[in-house]
Design goal:
By secondary structure, the chain is α+β, with helices and mostly antiparallel strands. The protein contains twelve helices and 17 strands. The strands form three sheets. Strands 1, 2, 3, 4, 5, 6, 15, 16 and 17 form a nine-stranded mixed sheet that branches. Strands 7, 9, 10, 12, 13 and 14 form a six-stranded antiparallel sheet that branches. The chain is globular, with a radius of gyration of 22 Å. The structure holds (2S)-amino(hydroxy)ethanoic acid and manganese (II) ion (3 copies). The site of one manganese (II) ion has 5 residues, from loops.
Length: 400
């Protein structure tokens, strides 16, 4: 079975026209934006043209279903607020091409999915988290984005015309192809990564409430400055984490909202995101304790109020041994000596789907290791190598 690499690349480039940023190949296609909805309508048409039955569920996860029991392939087609053209899109379009090729060859049955809000406008991998039961829909509906829009409000226009949640019992397993989003494969000039396990994540919003006041007349010692609290907190946790972390542990304050955010006003409130990731759930818990204690100390010292948003998270997961073996065998045939087994430091829908089905993932290189940025890219040869590995693995699994 040989997938059509020209058709695959053509569809991949067509998908990036939805929300094209006008900077390189970058896209702006956050979950439920007009660009995301338009891209999903186009994808649904492509699924139908491939002979699949389209079903969109109440949160906007888009499935193209084969008849009977099938392997599920896919990823997500929403992007970060500033994203690349391949993060998620690659796995969805590769799935579409494999499903199409399989139908043309008469077998095996392959279904396709594009999960919604993988990039966490509202939570962490929200669409697949709801589908898999990782979080209840009633809880997800209360989550807000950074502008205060709720998940319930964002999905309402889609939910009106949606079908039911797709029954996972019809799938035999899930395989997600993705870009690596880090430098390992590119630096080693390798073409394929077969994922061993995916890190765990914790994500929480914190708010310091101080006293909004005049920036010229308020003496420094009388201030209760919410930004100074964020700054002190950041310095303190960087020090305290050193006793707990491993070289692979990461943490990020990626979003800060100051109120009222003006040069001549001592900020009265600061709400910020705190995210941390590691392969060891105990370490994630120790970091959480440091975060909570440190934030409280900073608040008490500066006379500020402190509140915590809901703690969102996903546990570390290992990939299914049999699916992984199939990907490794296929990788060795397509790219002999130019592949490796490796962990994933990025989160993926596969983490949630692992609650329901055997899952596995394969990576292709990211040039210079760049992702979640407009200049994310991958060599065409590597994109096609990844597609070939996926096709071979799907064929081999069918023969087992
Ligand atoms: O942040 C992540 O790891 C994923 O791309 N959402
Ligand atoms: Mn992704
Ligand atoms: Mn991403
Ligand atoms: Mn290369």
């Amino acid at each position: 079975m040989t997938p059509n690499s020209e058709r695959f690349l053509s569809d991949l480039h067509q998908l990036r026209t939805f929300g094209a940023a006008g900077v390189g190949k970058g896209v702006i296609r956050p979950a439920y934006s007009d660009a995301d909805i338009a891209a999903r309508a186009w994808l649904a048409d492509r699924m139908r043209a491939a002979g699949l039955t389209v079903q969109q569920d109440p949160v906007g996860n888009l499935f193209g279903l084969a008849e009977g029991r099938s392997l599920l392939l896919g990823s997500h087609s929403d992007s970060q607020p500033e994203g690349g053209w391949l993060d998620g899109a690659l796995g969805v379009i590769a799935a579409l091409e494999i499903a199409r090729t399989c139908r043309e060859n008469g077998r095996p049955a392959v279904s396709v999915v594009s999960f919604q809000d993988e990039e966490g406008r509202f939570g962490v991998t929200t669409g697949s988290a709801v589908w898999s039961g990782q979080i209840d829909l009633s809880l997800a509906d209360t989550l807000t984005d950074h502008d205060g829009v709720t998940f319930a409000e964002a999905r309402a226009p889609l939910a009106a015309g949606a079908g039911d949640f797709v029954d996972p019992a019809q799938f035999t397993g899930f395989v997600e192809m993705h870009i690596e989003q880090g430098p390992a494969l590119d630096v080693a000039d390798e073409q394929i990564g077969v994922v061993t396990d995916i890190v765990g994540i914790r994500d929480m919003r914190l708010t310091f409430d101080g006293r909004q006041n005049h920036a010229g007349t308020t003496p420094m010692q009388l201030r209760r400055d919410a930004f100074q609290a964020v700054s002190a907190f950041n310095t303190a946790i960087n020090g305290r984490f050193q006793h707990v972390v491993s070289p692979r542990t990461v943490w990020t304050i990626g979003h800060v909202a100051l109120h009222p955010n003006a040069s001549s006003i001592v900020p009265g409130r600061a709400t910020f995101s705190m995210q941390w990731r590691d392969g060891d759930a105990d370490r994630l818990a120790r970091m959480e304790a440091i975060i909570r204690t440190t934030a409280q100390e900073v608040a008490d010292t500066g006379g500020l109020g402190l509140s915590f948003g809901p703690l969102l998270g996903l546990e570390p997961v290992a990939m299914d041994a049999a699916l992984r073996t199939a990907l490794e065998a296929a990788a060795e045939r397509v790219a002999p000596g130019r592949w490796r087994a490796m962990p994933s430091g990025a989160l993926h829908d596969a983490t949630n789907v692992a609650r329901l089905l055997p899952v596995a993932m394969l990576f292709v290189p990211s040039i210079k290791g760049i992702s979640h940025a407009f200049d994310e890219d991958t060599d065409e040869d590597d994109l096609v190598a990844g597609l070939s590995v996926l096709a071979r693995a799907v064929t081999d699994l069918d023969q087992d």
